[in-house]
Design goal:
CATH architecture: Sandwich
CATH class: Mainly Beta
CATH superfamily: B-lactam Antibiotic, Isopenicillin N Synthase, Chain
Oligomer: single chain
Helix content: 25-40%
Strand order of the largest sheet: 1-2-12-9-14-7-6-3
Number of domains: 1
Distance between the termini: 35 Å
Length: 331
């Protein structure tokens, strides 16, 4: 099903959040209403005027492709024993199609100090300062944008941003991390490659907010409330944003975490598809509990109060669940 995502212009929304600022203060702001509707219906939207220059985005894209073009033995030096850290080779599905791309994961700086530098040193023992500094800058900018988006999400819920963002589970209980993904076609026959459909595993994101860059190959599909898969096309200069399971839980299901996947075909030989996902998640000790302002007779409390570590521990035991937060934590 063909569709497109709502486009949110950040230049039309607040960047500073004063005391007791809430949705009623911006009741006439159509952009904030668009954001609220997008979070309620699909949990996905695009952002423009986010402050990152097109030339810098292209430079990051180019350096990421250069990294993925390294020989396998060079990339394998950056495989770490720590889960979700460093390089991970592609995972082929049972039918021979790539079900997961190769990727490079940079954990949050708080989780693993200087992770960008440590991983870069494994890839390039003699150094690659340009790559390190670019990834640091990309992470820094994405961190700022992700926090602003999350504040705007709270604002669109009608909440006092200064009150909630300076207390648990927000405040100092958030960490960001970056994953670069690369799908690469090595088929000898171009015609054969064009007929192969590549499908990544459908999933929802666990944390709060994800900001996605994808190149012009596209392929992102999102599942609607009715269960239909809709296609989205890349919009140059824009990022795709989606909400995660924990934010659905915290918002008492006012907002939605949607299942999504990547489906594409037609890559020519030696052509690749690059995406970069920045995740803003809670730290392990963060307590996820819907605020009283979002609980009433029409919206009774849906989920138990849990720590982020409770959710990750459960998922490690039973495997990933689809369609939003695990039902195990429902009241």
């Amino acid at each position: 099903m063909a569709s497109d995502l709502p486009v949110i212009d950040l230049s039309l929304l607040p960047s500073n959040f004063g005391e007791k600022q809430n949705f009623s203060d911006l009741d006439g702001n159509n952009e904030l209403k668009k954001l609220r509707e997008a979070c309620q219906e699909l949990g996905f939207f695009r952002i423009i005027n986010h402050g990152m220059e097109a030339a810098f985005i292209q430079k990051t894209d180019s350096l990421a492709r250069d990294m993925f073009s390294l020989a396998e033995e060079e990339k394998s030096r950056a495989i770490f024993p720590i889960f979700n850290t460093g390089y991970c080779p592609a995972d082929a599905g049972a039918d021979g199609k790539a079900s997961l791309p190769e990727n490079l994961v940079f954990p949050g700086e708080n989780a693993l100090p200087n992770s960008v530098d440590q991983i870069s040193a494994k890839l390039w023992p003699h150094g690659n300062n340009d790559f390190q500094q670019t990834v640091h800058k990309y992470n820094s900018h994405m961190t700022e944008v992700a926090h602003r988006i999350l504040k705007l999400v709270l604002l669109s819920l009608g909440l006092d941003v200064s009150k909630h963002y300076n207390s648990d589970p927000f405040g100092t209980s958030l960490q960001g991390w970056l994953r670069m993904n690369y799908y690469y076609n090595t088929k000898d026959e171009e015609e054969e490659a064009q007929n192969v459909q590549h499908i990544s595993k459908a999933h929802t994101d666990l944390g709060c907010v994800t900001i996605l860059y994808q190149d012009n190959v596209g392929g992102l599909q999102i599942r609607t409330k009715k269960g239909d898969w809709i296609n989205t096309k890349p919009l140059p200069g824009a990022f795709v944003v989606n909400l995660g399971d924990c934010l659905q839980m915290w918002s008492n299901c006012r907002y939605r975490s949607s299942e999504h996947r990547v489906v594409y075909q037609g890559l020519k030989k030696n052509q690749g598809r690059l995406s970069m996902a920045f995740f803003l998640d809670f730290i392990d000790k963060a307590e996820i509990r819907a605020p009283k302002e979002l609980i009433d007779e029409e919206h009774p409390q849906k989920y138990k109060t849990v720590k982020f570590s409770d959710i990750t521990s459960y998922l490690m035991q039973v495997g990933p669940t689809l369609g939003g937060p695990p039902s195990y934590f429902l009241l």
